[in-house]
Specification:
The protein is mostly helical and 236 residues long. It contains twelve helices and no strands.
Length: 236
Amino acid sequence: MRLALTTLTVLPVRTGRIDRRAAAVAMSAAPLIGALLGALLAALFALLGQGLLAATVTVAASALLTRGLHLDGLADTADALGSYRRGDAALAIMKKSDIGPFGVAAIALTLLIQAAALTELTPWAIVAAWAAGRLGVTLACRRGVPSARPDGLGALVAATVPVPVVILAAAVVAAGAVWAVPGRPWQGPAAVAGALLVAVLLLRHAVRRFGGITGDVIGATVEVTTTLTVIGLAVR
């Protein structure tokens, strides 16, 4: 749990043992960390009045509380995919410190969409969306999905989470989303399911292009899943 907190949030928690067994638990617990983060953001959103300003500040706070780590992964993954290169050539682009046009566009559009969608959400929907976003971590780290590199975060966490754990976590998050949209108990679970389906397709494409996942791909999966979930919850 300490590894999950320090990996997925800005909290400077001492991690203790770091190995693949600890990584399996940490990545399995990612949706819980997402729900806790979502609860903090939902409280901030409600405190600020639930308007456009509140939504924008909430999205900014989310980036701050996660050190912008997932947004950085989204930008690097977008640049690598946008290059149309494969294997080591694509991984080299992902590893560069600068951000290209695809990365800039990905970050800008993601933040804009999230802020716009939040104006239509209830505080509980924010909790559900951020839990669903971190469910993308659990999904990306399921067994059968290889690491693209022999070292780094991807190598530590790749293929550590048993598939039954992924299914159980998805069921719990979807069940919690039943109350996300008042009067529409079906919409929350449907939004989570739709976002996870796209996340699966993204991960399959990343494995084909890069040979597996990296820490950046995991971060991109978080942002894509979160964004698609808030869109699904906001649509009326």
